[in-house]
Amino acid sequence: MSKWNIVIDVERCTYCNNCFLTVKDEYCDNEFPGYSLPQPWHGHRWIDIKKRERGSGSLIDVAYLPTTCNQCDNAPCVAKGGGAVVKRPDGIVLIDPTLAKGKKEIVDTCPYGHIWWNPEYEVPQKWSWDAHLLDNGWKNPRPVTACGSYAFKAFKLTDEKMAEKVREEKLEVLKPQLNTKPRLYYKNLYRFSREHLAGSVAYHLSDGREECAEGAEVKLLDQDSLVSSQTTDIFGDFKFDDLPANSGPYNLEINFRDKTLTEVIKLGLSENIGVRFID
Predict the structure, then answer these.
(1) The CATH number fitting domain 195-277, selected from 2.60.40.10, 3.30.420.150, 3.90.230.10, 2.60.300.12
(2) How far is CA 89 from CA 2, 71, 180, 183, in A?
(3) Distances from the Cα of 183 to the Cα of 6, 112, 234, 255, angstroms
(4) Which alpha helices (H) appear in the chain, and where do they start and end?
């Protein structure tokens, strides 16, 4: 049977918040019997976008991570919800707004922090991927259609086809060690969860002026094993990404115009090591 999955490309998210606002527009002041009572205007973030800055100076970058209900196959909320939370055959997890009334303990069952308590109606709430719309013929949840950068995509596939997609596109989930088996996947998650090592290469002209070393070959080696190799851009910049935090020591090797510069670097968090002159 085909089941719903969402894939979010971290590299494409621009923090426009269309996804967040779309969910607010859909659920605030609106009740969908059997699916959801109205969402409060304030306090709830059924789609919550995390922000992370990496590096420093001119080689800093910012990544955004939209988070929401993962519709887990091994959902703790289902296991501990006393029948008030159900896993549908199509993969979507629903909190029954009638059966869940008064059960505030359901909020704490989510290890991702994506169930909220609504004090007005005394019910736990979350985003269920617009199940009421999908059941009425919509091809995608509303945030997918509202995402102008195409960071959000929904797929209704068999588990076998989705597993193939995960392998081919190197998709990841949050907190895989929990074994909750989320149906929310991320592409380019390294932009948020891992580190980079960046810097610049320059040289001195005969009159003493400094010039960017465009086209320098920069290698990052773990002992004698090549991690990655690249060529500096017009500004002499380089950046090695998708590195583990607190890793190394690495050997950084720079080659430019028959000259070689080597340096040992141990990486903590993302770092801009500044300019390295090769003369």
Answers:
(1) 2.60.40.10
(2) 9, 12, 16, 13
(3) 7, 13, 42, 45
(4) 18-27, 76-80, 131-134, 142-146, 159-169, 190-193
Instruction: Report which of 176, 177, 175, 172 is spatially closest to residue 188, judged by C-alpha positions.
Output: 172
Q: Encode 207-238: b = buried (16+ Cβ within 10 Å), e = exposed.
A: eeeeebbeebebbbbeeeeebbeeebeeebbb
Q: Which two tokens stand for residue 85?
A: 């939370």
pTM of the model: 0.92
In the predicted structure, residue 58 carries a pLDDT above the cut 90: no
Would you call 44 helix, strand, or coil by DSSP? coil
Residues 6+ apart with CB under 8 A from 140: 154
Q: Report CA torsion sign: 137, 88, 100, 110.
A: negative
**pLDDT for the residue 57:** 83
CB 39 within 8 A of CB 28: yes
Q: Which helix or strand (DSSP H or E) is residue 254 part of?
A: strand 247-256
- Per residue in 228-254, pLDDT (tens digit) is 999 999 999 999 999 999 999 999 999
